[in-house]
Design a protein that fits this description.
alpha/beta, Uracil-DNA Glycosylase, subunit E, 5-stranded mixed sheet, 5 strands, 12% strand, globular
Length: 197
């Protein structure tokens, strides 16, 4: 079966999913707006943001994290047409107040088969996780013992694939953990890897 047909099936299944109780009124962010089906890099983040992907339907678009992500991509001459972006959970988890919330372990587990199938379908030459939640979520697909702190911006072997753990480009992370200058250096390494292929 054609890759595009298989992707449309996956998209339809994700759109119909109602497993996670607190996200039943949210729509899965998985469509052709996520990027290329033949990406140079598959990026995996945590969850669609309330002001970003949940509103625009485009991962990392429309909020501060998205703005930084696009700056990081541009720094290594990549565009959204070169990549695919998905999340560990495809719907936007919210606190009772309506603010963004971290997905629970159960929610990540519920969505892990969509992530596994996306990886298998796209067969990317390189996977880059954005943040500790995304890196941890890969353990549900194939075991690993990587930590973001120790493995950040290193090319690793995982499940027969190349994996690069990166920090999330959120304003909080930029201020408290990994500055924009450091994240630009991390992305420079990604660019070098792509050129060396």
């Amino acid at each position: 079966m054609k890759q595009s047909t298989l992707f449309r099936q996956l998209e339809a299944e994700a759109a119909a999913c109602l497993i996670c109780e607190r996200m039943q009124d949210r729509k899965a962010v998985l469509s052709k707006l996520n990027g290329s089906l033949m990406p140079k890099i598959l990026f995996i983040a945590e969850a669609p943001g309330r002001n970003g992907a949940d509103r625009t339907r485009i991962p990392f678009h429309g909020d501060a994290s998205g703005k930084t992500f696009e700056q990081l991509l541009a720094s290594i001459n990549l565009t959204r047409a070169d990549i695919f972006i998905t999340n560990t959970v495809l719907c936007s988890p919210r606190k009772p107040s309506g603010a963004n919330d971290k997905p629970t372990r159960a929610e990540i587990r519920n969505c892990s088969h969509f992530l596994r199938r996306t990886i298998e379908l796209l067969h990317p030459p390189l996977i880059a996780t954005l943040g500790a939640v995304a890196l941890d979520a890969l353990r549900l697909i194939a075991p690993h013992d990587f930590t973001l702190k120790e493995a950040a911006a290193k090319v690793l072997e995982w499940n027969g694939r190349k994996l690069v753990p990166l920090y999330h480009p959120s304003p909080q992370v930029l201020i408290t953990v990994r500055s924009l200058a450091q994240q630009l250096e991390d992305f420079k390494m990604l660019g070098q890897w792509l050129k060396s292929r």
